[in-house]
Amino acid sequence: YPNQLDPGQSNYGFFPLYPLLVRLLRGLLHGNTILAGIIVSNLALLVAAVFLYRLVRLSSDEATARRSMKYLFLFPAGFILSGVFSEPLFLALAILCFYFARKGDWLLCGLMGFLVSLTRSNGVLIVLPVFWEYLRAKQFSLRNLRPDILLLGLIPAGALSFAIFCFIKTGDPLAYVHAKQSGWHLTMHDPFTVLYRNLITGSPPLVFNALLAIAVIVLLAVGYRRIGFAYWLFGMLMITMALAYGLGAPGQARVMTSMYGIARFALEIFPLAIILGGMTRDERVDWPLTTGLALLQGALMVFWATGSDLVV
Questions:
Q1: Is 254 helix (H, G, I), strand (E, B) or coil?
Q2: With contact defined as beta carbons under 8 Å apart, do 133 and 101 qualify?
Q3: How far apart are CA 205 and CA 289, in angstroms?
Q4: pLDDT at residue 253 greater than cutoff 50
Q5: Quick check: helix, strand or coil at residue 184?
Q6: pLDDT per position as a tens digit, 132-141
């Protein structure tokens, strides 16, 4: 994309950490951008899988941790995690942020959160569930609060640093927002109104992604007791933010809407893998679900590779 803000689409519509890492690695690969992106994404996916296992082991048994890691790979659009997209980096950093929060290492938690909010625009929202984790660790007592609570300020500082960069380069600290509005015609709406309106469109890709969003919300509700409030809040924030930009501009809904990307955005919600890992202790549940999700992912990959709008 071009560097100018207006008119049309712009580089400022994307947060910088993933492309920056790709650019740094590209220099070692003689300018091969695609290979650099694939390496960054797959290294991030490996980190995500390892630390998801470790995160689950903090509160559950090894078998559940292994199943959770398996279901991370079996998400319907899981093949995206090996492609040149920012989702695997976001996923790895979000898991690391929660892992260090659960370990009580608030400096590393804040640093990972800083990087999360430099990776995707919704990353800054992780500060809310992490703040809850901090309060829980302090037993929700004001007397137990320590100066280390200030380390959580590193999380929004990531997004703030990008805003400062945008201001220096363009004079507009909200260049990201305005790029999305002018280049993609995306504006925020009530997510549940968006969900309903996409369900009744009759468009197979939009209906499919709307149903997938409903499945995510239902699974988060059903698995609430397994994951707790912080993970549930993280999941709900991610899916509702994805839905909020799902209407698009009048007359341009086919291309100018985030609804086509719900299957991809759902990859960021790692608590879903933890829920499935905990619900499948019985092999009579685990194997059919494993087989069904593997077949679904294979089918979606075929659709994606042939240009379908089911996964964008």
A1: coil
A2: yes
A3: 23
A4: no
A5: coil
A6: 999 999 999 9
